[in-house]
Automatic annotation (TrEMBL):
Residues 2-120 form the CENP-V/GFA domain. Belongs to the Gfa family. The keyword Zinc applies. This is CENP-V/GFA domain-containing protein. The keyword Metal-binding applies. Transmembrane segments: none annotated. Keywords: Lyase, Metal-binding, Zinc.
Amino acid sequence: MIEGGCNCGAVRYRAEGDPIVVAQCHCTNCRRQSGSAFSVNLLFKGAAVSHDGELSVYEDKDTFSGNAVLRKFCGRCGSPIFSEPTDGKGLLIVKAGTLDDPAPFVPTVSVWTSTALPWVVLPEGQYAFEKNA
């Protein structure tokens, strides 16, 4: 069981099983949402994740894929919790910084490296994709 939550504790979540992949995303939208040089994300089947507490949603329509992404966050403290692509694949992205223990989840792939900041050094041996994998 993987658990996490927002900064103020109003939202808590649980994920069953291991993530499909742990990825660094360097797209502009993930940078803006994370407030950092990239976002570290755990990808799950949506059915594997449940949560307690109210989430606010921003429908991000300005994506490279053309499909909207639902950016879900705590309306009280603003912590980004999930991103949910609306492409019909039923996937849910959990923001690694919200995990109770993020240490075990080392990114194995970087996506959208074509928009990575020039001073970001990708880990040696990590798979890297100029766009989505």
